[in-house]
Structure formats: C-alpha cells, structure tokens
Write the structure tokens for this entry.
Amino acid sequence: MEKNDRKERRKKRRRRNRIFNICLYVLSACLILFGVYIILREFTWVFNHSSAEAPDATFPPITTEAAYTAAPDQTEKATHAPGTTEPPDPGPTPRPEPGKKPVSISFVDYDVNVAIVPIGVDDEGNMHDVPSAEIAGWLETGACPNQEGNCIIGGHIRYHGKLGLFSVLRDKLKPGDRVIVKMEDGSYAFYTVLSVNEYPYDDIPSSVMSQTGEKRLTLITCKGDYDYLIHTSRTRVVVVCRPVTASDQTAVD
C-alpha cells in the first residue's frame, strides 16, 4: 500500500513538472514573439504602413511650375526650426483659406499615406510636437497647399519606440518622387520632390522655415537617436517639393 502511495506521489510530481515546463515554454514563446514585435515595430513598416486612405486622384502629367526651382539656401540659419530656441520669423505669414487645410499626405511611389493635424508653435517659436508616430503636423501659421508661400509639414521618424511614417523621408524619398496632399474640402495638391537634404538641428537654413515666398511644400523629420542633453535629435531631414500644374486639382466625390 505504501509503495503504491509513493508511485502515485511521483506521478503527481511528474505531472506538475510537465505542467510547469509547458507554462515556461509558453511564456518564453510569448516573450520571444513580443521581442520580435518590438523589433518589427521600430525598424519595419509591418504594423504602421499608413494612417490615412490612399488618395482618390490620378497624378497629373509632370509639368512643374516655374516657381521655386532651387534647393534651399544653406548659408543662413533657420528662424524657428523644430528643436531650436530661435525666435519666430517676425515677417508676415499667409492667411489659410477656409476649407483648404490639409488632412493627409500620400507618398505615391511608396504607398504611404499619413493623416495630418494642424499644429502651432510654442513661445520660443518651435513647432509643437505631434504625439504619434502615425500622424504628421501641418504648421497652421504657414501656407495651405496650393497657396503662395511655404506649406510646412513635420512628422516623426520614430516615436516612443515605434517607427514613424515620416521615416519615408529618410529611408526612401528622392528627387522626382510624387507627393499628393489632400485638403479637408476634398481637393488635392500635387507635388514632386525637388531636394532631400540633411542639416544639423541648430544650423538649418532660414529658407526652410520661411513661410513666405514661392509656392512650395516643405517636409521635415528628425534623424538619429534622441539626444537627452538637447531633448531632440541632432539632425533634420528636409524635403522640399515643388507644385505640379494640373487642371484637376478640384474636389473629388
């Protein structure tokens, strides 16, 4: 009888050990999958390819406007670039037209569509941050798309460990690529990439953040790891786009 009891106890221990080992295997597998998810989220677009619908518009033939055919001047410092403490440009700024605020931007050649929200500047003239890797911010004190002046849109390359949709600026975008901006009234503005440049965060040309001048679109994101000493990344990627002349820049049903 005692011998049978010992056998039964051994069976129970082995059963508990098997259950414990199975739980360990499952937990280990979950941790591995979570680690893979974190890596993919930070370094690939598997989980955040777009945050807006693709534009319901056909890109027109590439007949660019004559205005703004040169890259920004690199000799002057920006007046209130993101991440700096320079004061804002005191010059006049265009007044946004009602119903023409941008709501999304699409990088046609890479099937990346990004939602846009309006943002302002702080007391030191820095663009407000967008609290998401999947959303871009339009500087509402600047021009609207299709207006004279500089339409400025910024986004994250990475935010809280998640790859930002504006990483397309650093990783993929090149001169000649197509960009479409959709406005809240359903109309579209068409652009082609003119230049892709990198600047130190504290030495950005004044033309980048100037809100006046010829009609253009300026896209901005960071590059490099976050520097806790300066509370930002040390490099900016700046993409300047020129408008494409098109007769169908009207509302689409």
Observations:
- Confidence is low (pLDDT under 50) at residues 64-81, 83-88, 90-94, 247-253.
- Helices lie at 2-43, 167-171, 206-209.
- The two ends are 85 Å apart (CA to CA).
- Strands lie at 102-107, 112-119, 135-139, 150-154, 158-159, 162-163, 178-183, 188-200, 216-223, 235-243.
